Amino acid sequence: MYPRSQNRQPFEVTLLNRKISQLLYFALFLPVLCHATDFSRQFAQVDPSVVVLHTYSTSPVTEKVEQGLGSGVVISQEGDILTAAHVVHTSDAVHVEFKDGQRVLAKVVGTEPAADLALLKLQKIPDNLVAAKLGDSDEVQIGNEVFVIGSPYGLHHTLTTGHISARHSGPELGKLFLLGDFLQTDAAINKGNSGGPVCNLDGEVIGIVSYIETTSGGHQGIGFAVTSNSARALMLERNNYWSGLNGLPITADIAKAINYPLDYGVLIQKIAEGSATDRLQLREGTIPVKINDQELLLGGDIIVSVAEIPLDGQLSFQKIREKIDRMDAGEPINFQIYRNGMLAVLSLEKP
Question: In the chain, which segments carry CATH 2.40.10.10?
Fold first, then answer.
Protein backbone atom coordinates (compact mmCIF):
# COMPACT_ATOMS: atom_id res chain seq x y z
CA MET A 1 0.00 0.00 0.00
CA TYR A 2 0.99 3.52 -0.70
CA PRO A 3 1.32 5.58 2.44
CA ARG A 4 -1.56 8.08 2.99
CA SER A 5 -0.61 11.72 2.83
CA GLN A 6 -1.24 13.68 5.98
CA ASN A 7 -2.92 16.48 3.89
CA ARG A 8 -5.25 14.15 2.01
CA GLN A 9 -8.96 14.42 3.04
CA PRO A 10 -11.17 11.37 3.24
CA PHE A 11 -13.36 10.73 0.16
CA GLU A 12 -16.57 11.39 2.13
CA VAL A 13 -15.43 14.90 3.14
CA THR A 14 -14.48 15.81 -0.45
CA LEU A 15 -17.88 14.67 -1.73
CA LEU A 16 -19.66 16.65 0.98
CA ASN A 17 -17.76 19.83 0.06
CA ARG A 18 -18.71 19.36 -3.60
CA LYS A 19 -22.41 19.06 -2.72
CA ILE A 20 -22.25 22.15 -0.54
CA SER A 21 -20.65 24.09 -3.43
CA GLN A 22 -23.41 22.99 -5.78
CA LEU A 23 -26.10 24.02 -3.31
CA LEU A 24 -24.49 27.42 -2.84
CA TYR A 25 -24.35 27.91 -6.64
CA PHE A 26 -28.05 27.23 -7.06
CA ALA A 27 -28.93 29.33 -4.04
CA LEU A 28 -27.06 32.31 -5.49
CA PHE A 29 -27.94 32.09 -9.17
CA LEU A 30 -31.28 30.27 -9.41
CA PRO A 31 -33.33 33.29 -8.21
CA VAL A 32 -31.79 35.37 -11.00
CA LEU A 33 -32.67 32.77 -13.58
CA CYS A 34 -36.20 32.38 -12.27
CA HIS A 35 -36.86 36.15 -12.47
CA ALA A 36 -35.74 36.57 -16.09
CA THR A 37 -38.79 37.85 -18.00
CA ASP A 38 -40.01 36.10 -21.13
CA PHE A 39 -41.21 38.83 -23.55
CA SER A 40 -42.37 36.50 -26.31
CA ARG A 41 -46.09 36.97 -25.56
CA GLN A 42 -45.83 40.76 -25.41
CA PHE A 43 -43.73 40.87 -28.57
CA ALA A 44 -46.28 38.80 -30.49
CA GLN A 45 -49.02 41.14 -29.25
CA VAL A 46 -47.39 44.44 -30.22
CA ASP A 47 -45.15 43.61 -33.18
CA PRO A 48 -47.93 43.50 -35.86
CA SER A 49 -48.66 47.18 -35.09
CA VAL A 50 -45.00 48.26 -35.46
CA VAL A 51 -44.05 49.63 -38.88
CA VAL A 52 -40.91 50.61 -40.75
CA LEU A 53 -40.88 54.14 -42.15
CA HIS A 54 -39.03 54.80 -45.42
CA THR A 55 -38.65 58.53 -45.98
CA TYR A 56 -37.70 60.33 -49.20
CA SER A 57 -36.47 63.90 -49.47
CA THR A 58 -35.00 65.84 -52.39
CA SER A 59 -31.81 67.73 -51.60
CA PRO A 60 -32.15 71.44 -52.43
CA VAL A 61 -28.46 71.46 -53.37
CA THR A 62 -27.93 68.32 -55.45
CA GLU A 63 -31.62 67.71 -56.33
CA LYS A 64 -30.98 64.03 -55.59
CA VAL A 65 -33.45 61.99 -53.55
CA GLU A 66 -32.14 61.16 -50.09
CA GLN A 67 -33.60 58.20 -48.21
CA GLY A 68 -34.13 57.81 -44.47
CA LEU A 69 -35.28 55.06 -42.14
CA GLY A 70 -37.26 55.07 -38.92
CA SER A 71 -39.95 53.25 -36.98
CA GLY A 72 -43.53 53.94 -36.01
CA VAL A 73 -46.53 52.34 -34.34
CA VAL A 74 -50.15 52.10 -35.53
CA ILE A 75 -52.51 53.38 -32.82
CA SER A 76 -55.94 53.21 -34.48
CA GLN A 77 -57.95 51.17 -36.96
CA GLU A 78 -58.35 54.40 -38.96
CA GLY A 79 -54.64 54.28 -39.85
CA ASP A 80 -53.14 56.75 -37.39
CA ILE A 81 -49.42 56.24 -36.74
CA LEU A 82 -47.24 57.84 -34.09
CA THR A 83 -43.55 58.40 -34.73
CA ALA A 84 -40.76 60.89 -33.98
CA ALA A 85 -40.87 64.31 -35.61
CA HIS A 86 -37.23 64.20 -36.68
CA VAL A 87 -37.95 61.09 -38.78
CA VAL A 88 -40.58 62.69 -41.04
CA HIS A 89 -40.68 66.46 -40.45
CA THR A 90 -38.92 67.50 -43.69
CA SER A 91 -39.72 64.39 -45.77
CA ASP A 92 -41.29 64.80 -49.20
CA ALA A 93 -42.80 61.30 -49.06
CA VAL A 94 -43.26 58.57 -46.42
CA HIS A 95 -43.77 54.88 -47.22
CA VAL A 96 -45.01 52.65 -44.41
CA GLU A 97 -43.80 49.04 -44.50
CA PHE A 98 -45.69 46.37 -42.57
CA LYS A 99 -44.29 43.10 -41.26
CA ASP A 100 -45.66 41.15 -44.27
CA GLY A 101 -43.70 43.44 -46.62
CA GLN A 102 -46.72 45.44 -47.78
CA ARG A 103 -46.01 49.15 -48.33
CA VAL A 104 -48.56 51.96 -48.07
CA LEU A 105 -48.15 55.71 -48.56
CA ALA A 106 -48.76 57.89 -45.53
CA LYS A 107 -49.48 61.58 -45.13
CA VAL A 108 -47.90 63.69 -42.41
CA VAL A 109 -50.86 65.08 -40.47
CA GLY A 110 -48.89 67.05 -37.92
CA THR A 111 -45.54 67.39 -36.20
CA GLU A 112 -44.44 68.88 -32.90
CA PRO A 113 -40.64 69.29 -33.08
CA ALA A 114 -40.67 70.84 -29.58
CA ALA A 115 -41.52 67.36 -28.25
CA ASP A 116 -40.15 65.27 -31.16
CA LEU A 117 -43.58 63.86 -32.06
CA ALA A 118 -45.38 63.33 -35.36
CA LEU A 119 -48.72 61.89 -36.47
CA LEU A 120 -49.17 60.11 -39.82
CA LYS A 121 -52.28 58.89 -41.60
CA LEU A 122 -52.26 55.88 -43.91
CA GLN A 123 -53.59 56.67 -47.38
CA LYS A 124 -54.94 53.12 -47.65
CA ILE A 125 -56.03 50.85 -44.80
CA PRO A 126 -54.68 47.26 -45.03
CA ASP A 127 -57.21 44.50 -44.40
CA ASN A 128 -55.22 43.03 -41.51
CA LEU A 129 -54.34 46.28 -39.76
CA VAL A 130 -53.49 45.84 -36.06
CA ALA A 131 -53.42 48.81 -33.70
CA ALA A 132 -51.49 48.99 -30.44
CA LYS A 133 -53.02 50.39 -27.26
CA LEU A 134 -51.74 53.64 -25.78
CA GLY A 135 -51.10 53.16 -22.08
CA ASP A 136 -51.07 55.65 -19.22
CA SER A 137 -47.46 56.76 -18.86
CA ASP A 138 -48.27 58.48 -15.54
CA GLU A 139 -48.47 55.01 -14.01
CA VAL A 140 -44.94 54.09 -15.07
CA GLN A 141 -42.49 53.72 -12.20
CA ILE A 142 -38.70 53.96 -12.24
CA GLY A 143 -37.42 50.40 -12.30
CA ASN A 144 -40.34 49.01 -14.36
CA GLU A 145 -39.39 46.54 -17.07
CA VAL A 146 -40.04 47.68 -20.64
CA PHE A 147 -39.38 46.54 -24.19
CA VAL A 148 -38.70 48.34 -27.45
CA ILE A 149 -39.49 47.21 -31.02
CA GLY A 150 -37.95 48.91 -34.03
CA SER A 151 -35.47 48.76 -36.89
CA PRO A 152 -31.98 49.41 -35.47
CA TYR A 153 -29.55 49.75 -38.38
CA GLY A 154 -32.28 48.46 -40.71
CA LEU A 155 -32.85 45.20 -38.79
CA HIS A 156 -36.64 45.31 -38.85
CA HIS A 157 -38.84 44.19 -35.94
CA THR A 158 -35.99 43.86 -33.47
CA LEU A 159 -36.84 43.42 -29.78
CA THR A 160 -34.73 44.93 -27.00
CA THR A 161 -35.53 45.04 -23.29
CA GLY A 162 -34.57 47.03 -20.23
CA HIS A 163 -35.90 49.19 -17.44
CA ILE A 164 -37.15 52.73 -16.88
CA SER A 165 -34.16 54.63 -15.51
CA ALA A 166 -35.62 58.10 -14.90
CA ARG A 167 -38.24 60.67 -15.93
CA HIS A 168 -37.56 64.14 -17.31
CA SER A 169 -39.47 67.10 -18.67
CA GLY A 170 -38.53 68.29 -22.15
CA PRO A 171 -36.92 71.55 -20.93
CA GLU A 172 -34.76 69.57 -18.46
CA LEU A 173 -33.20 67.69 -21.37
CA GLY A 174 -32.47 70.73 -23.49
CA LYS A 175 -32.28 69.58 -27.15
CA LEU A 176 -34.78 72.39 -27.95
CA PHE A 177 -37.56 70.30 -26.35
CA LEU A 178 -39.87 72.91 -24.87
CA LEU A 179 -42.82 70.53 -24.51
CA GLY A 180 -43.60 67.03 -23.34
CA ASP A 181 -42.25 64.59 -20.78
CA PHE A 182 -39.66 61.90 -21.45
CA LEU A 183 -38.86 58.45 -20.08
CA GLN A 184 -35.21 57.43 -19.82
CA THR A 185 -34.44 53.75 -20.43
CA ASP A 186 -31.43 51.44 -20.61
CA ALA A 187 -33.08 49.28 -23.29
CA ALA A 188 -30.86 49.16 -26.39
CA ILE A 189 -31.79 51.96 -28.82
CA ASN A 190 -29.87 52.66 -32.00
CA LYS A 191 -30.23 54.43 -35.35
CA GLY A 192 -33.47 53.21 -36.92
CA ASN A 193 -35.31 52.81 -33.60
CA SER A 194 -36.49 56.43 -33.66
CA GLY A 195 -40.28 56.67 -33.63
CA GLY A 196 -40.81 53.10 -32.44
CA PRO A 197 -42.78 52.14 -29.32
CA VAL A 198 -41.59 51.62 -25.77
CA CYS A 199 -44.04 49.23 -24.11
CA ASN A 200 -44.88 47.97 -20.63
CA LEU A 201 -45.41 44.34 -19.65
CA ASP A 202 -49.10 44.60 -20.60
CA GLY A 203 -48.10 45.36 -24.19
CA GLU A 204 -49.27 48.97 -23.96
CA VAL A 205 -47.33 51.80 -25.62
CA ILE A 206 -45.98 54.09 -22.92
CA GLY A 207 -43.45 56.02 -25.02
CA ILE A 208 -42.22 56.90 -28.52
CA VAL A 209 -38.46 56.55 -29.01
CA SER A 210 -36.76 59.92 -29.51
CA TYR A 211 -32.97 59.87 -29.16
CA ILE A 212 -29.94 58.52 -27.28
CA GLU A 213 -27.02 60.08 -25.44
CA THR A 214 -23.84 58.52 -26.78
CA THR A 215 -20.15 59.17 -27.29
CA SER A 216 -19.73 56.24 -29.67
CA GLY A 217 -22.67 56.83 -32.01
CA GLY A 218 -24.45 53.70 -30.75
CA HIS A 219 -26.24 52.38 -27.68
CA GLN A 220 -24.62 53.15 -24.32
CA GLY A 221 -27.59 52.57 -22.04
CA ILE A 222 -29.06 56.10 -22.09
CA GLY A 223 -32.11 56.39 -24.33
CA PHE A 224 -35.13 58.69 -24.23
CA ALA A 225 -38.75 58.32 -25.30
CA VAL A 226 -41.59 60.85 -25.30
CA THR A 227 -44.31 59.65 -22.95
CA SER A 228 -47.58 58.29 -24.30
CA ASN A 229 -49.54 60.88 -22.34
CA SER A 230 -47.52 63.66 -24.00
CA ALA A 231 -48.24 62.09 -27.39
CA ARG A 232 -51.94 61.85 -26.58
CA ALA A 233 -52.17 65.47 -25.42
CA LEU A 234 -50.03 67.04 -28.14
CA MET A 235 -50.95 64.96 -31.20
CA LEU A 236 -54.43 63.50 -30.57
CA GLU A 237 -56.26 66.00 -28.38
CA ARG A 238 -55.52 69.28 -30.20
CA ASN A 239 -55.26 70.60 -33.75
CA ASN A 240 -52.23 69.45 -35.69
CA TYR A 241 -50.03 71.43 -38.07
CA TRP A 242 -47.16 70.40 -40.28
CA SER A 243 -44.83 73.25 -41.14
CA GLY A 244 -42.36 70.93 -42.90
CA LEU A 245 -39.73 73.57 -42.27
CA ASN A 246 -36.12 73.15 -41.26
CA GLY A 247 -34.50 76.48 -40.43
CA LEU A 248 -31.64 78.09 -38.54
CA PRO A 249 -32.07 80.95 -36.06
CA ILE A 250 -30.34 84.09 -37.26
CA THR A 251 -27.14 84.89 -35.37
CA ALA A 252 -25.02 88.04 -35.53
CA ASP A 253 -22.44 86.22 -37.70
CA ILE A 254 -25.07 84.97 -40.14
CA ALA A 255 -26.76 88.38 -40.32
CA LYS A 256 -23.43 90.06 -41.10
CA ALA A 257 -22.48 87.46 -43.72
CA ILE A 258 -25.73 87.87 -45.67
CA ASN A 259 -26.17 91.62 -45.02
CA TYR A 260 -29.42 91.06 -43.12
CA PRO A 261 -30.54 94.20 -41.26
CA LEU A 262 -32.31 92.52 -38.29
CA ASP A 263 -30.94 90.45 -35.41
CA TYR A 264 -33.72 87.84 -35.34
CA GLY A 265 -35.56 85.51 -37.72
CA VAL A 266 -35.20 81.99 -39.12
CA LEU A 267 -33.17 81.25 -42.24
CA ILE A 268 -34.94 78.52 -44.25
CA GLN A 269 -32.85 75.45 -45.03
CA LYS A 270 -35.33 72.83 -46.25
CA ILE A 271 -39.07 72.70 -46.97
CA ALA A 272 -41.04 69.46 -47.32
CA GLU A 273 -43.32 69.02 -50.32
CA GLY A 274 -46.99 69.33 -49.45
CA SER A 275 -46.36 71.05 -46.12
CA ALA A 276 -47.83 74.39 -45.02
CA THR A 277 -44.64 76.31 -45.86
CA ASP A 278 -44.52 74.62 -49.26
CA ARG A 279 -48.02 75.89 -50.03
CA LEU A 280 -46.80 79.38 -49.13
CA GLN A 281 -44.15 78.96 -51.85
CA LEU A 282 -41.36 79.89 -49.48
CA ARG A 283 -37.86 79.43 -50.86
CA GLU A 284 -35.35 77.05 -49.34
CA GLY A 285 -31.58 77.41 -49.23
CA THR A 286 -29.51 76.18 -52.16
CA ILE A 287 -25.98 77.50 -51.60
CA PRO A 288 -23.83 75.50 -49.14
CA VAL A 289 -21.42 77.64 -47.08
CA LYS A 290 -19.58 77.48 -43.77
CA ILE A 291 -19.75 80.33 -41.27
CA ASN A 292 -17.60 79.96 -38.14
CA ASP A 293 -17.37 76.17 -38.73
CA GLN A 294 -21.17 75.94 -39.05
CA GLU A 295 -22.40 74.40 -42.31
CA LEU A 296 -25.59 75.94 -43.67
CA LEU A 297 -27.48 76.80 -46.83
CA LEU A 298 -27.90 80.36 -48.08
CA GLY A 299 -30.28 81.70 -50.71
CA GLY A 300 -33.50 80.86 -48.89
CA ASP A 301 -36.10 83.19 -47.39
CA ILE A 302 -35.81 84.46 -43.84
CA ILE A 303 -39.01 84.23 -41.81
CA VAL A 304 -39.17 87.35 -39.66
CA SER A 305 -42.49 86.79 -37.89
CA VAL A 306 -45.53 84.50 -37.92
CA ALA A 307 -48.99 85.73 -36.90
CA GLU A 308 -47.39 89.08 -36.00
CA ILE A 309 -45.09 87.40 -33.45
CA PRO A 310 -41.35 87.97 -34.11
CA LEU A 311 -39.16 84.86 -34.32
CA ASP A 312 -36.72 86.09 -31.70
CA GLY A 313 -36.17 82.97 -29.59
CA GLN A 314 -37.37 79.47 -28.82
CA LEU A 315 -40.32 80.68 -26.74
CA SER A 316 -41.67 82.56 -29.77
CA PHE A 317 -42.60 79.25 -31.42
CA GLN A 318 -44.77 78.29 -28.47
CA LYS A 319 -46.42 81.74 -28.50
CA ILE A 320 -47.15 81.36 -32.22
CA ARG A 321 -48.67 77.92 -31.68
CA GLU A 322 -50.91 79.20 -28.90
CA LYS A 323 -52.10 82.15 -30.99
CA ILE A 324 -52.87 79.96 -34.03
CA ASP A 325 -54.81 77.56 -31.80
CA ARG A 326 -57.07 80.48 -30.78
CA MET A 327 -57.71 81.53 -34.38
CA ASP A 328 -60.80 80.45 -36.30
CA ALA A 329 -60.64 78.11 -39.26
CA GLY A 330 -60.13 80.07 -42.48
CA GLU A 331 -58.56 83.03 -40.70
CA PRO A 332 -55.33 84.17 -42.41
CA ILE A 333 -51.97 83.39 -40.80
CA ASN A 334 -49.48 86.04 -41.87
CA PHE A 335 -45.81 85.26 -42.50
CA GLN A 336 -43.47 88.23 -42.77
CA ILE A 337 -40.39 87.25 -44.77
CA TYR A 338 -37.18 88.83 -45.98
CA ARG A 339 -36.40 88.07 -49.63
CA ASN A 340 -33.98 89.74 -52.05
CA GLY A 341 -33.33 92.58 -49.64
CA MET A 342 -37.01 93.39 -49.09
CA LEU A 343 -39.70 92.59 -46.53
CA ALA A 344 -42.89 90.93 -47.76
CA VAL A 345 -45.98 89.31 -46.24
CA LEU A 346 -47.44 85.97 -47.32
CA SER A 347 -50.68 84.53 -45.93
CA LEU A 348 -52.04 81.05 -45.37
CA GLU A 349 -55.54 80.18 -44.19
CA LYS A 350 -55.79 78.23 -40.98
CA PRO A 351 -57.13 74.76 -41.83
Answer: 43-122, 137-236
How many Å apart are CA 87 and CA 58, to the nearest integer?
15
Length of the chain: 351
Ordered DSSP codes for 88-100? HTT-SEEEEE-TT
Fold classification of 245-349 is Pdz3 Domain (2.30.42)
DSSP per-residue letters across 164-204? EEEEEEHHHH-TT--S-EEEEE-S---TT-TT-EEE-TTS-
- Using one digit for the tens of pLDDT, what is the confidence trace for 20-69? 566 555 555 555 444 678 999 999 999 999 999 999 999 999 999 999 99
Q: CATH top-level class for 43-122? A: mainly beta
Q: Determine whether domain 137-236 maps to CATH 3.80.10.10.
A: no
Q: Give the C-alpha separation, 152 to 147, whole Å.
A: 14
Handedness of CA 291, 293, 297, 301 (dihedral sign): negative
Instruction: Give me the DSSP letters along 293-347.
Output: TEEEEESS-EEEEETTEE--SHHHHHHHHHHHHHSPTT-EEEEEEEETTEEEEEE
> Which CA distances in Å does 192 have to 71, 83, 113, 240, 327?
6, 12, 18, 25, 37
**Catalytic residues, which ones?**
86, 116, 194
Query: pLDDT (tens digit, 9 = 90+) per residue, 128-170?
Result: 999 999 999 999 999 999 999 999 999 999 999 999 999 999 8
**Contacts by 325-331 with C-beta closer than 8 Å and gap 24+?**
325/238, 325/239
Q: Is 118 helix (H, G, I), strand (E, B) or coil?
A: strand
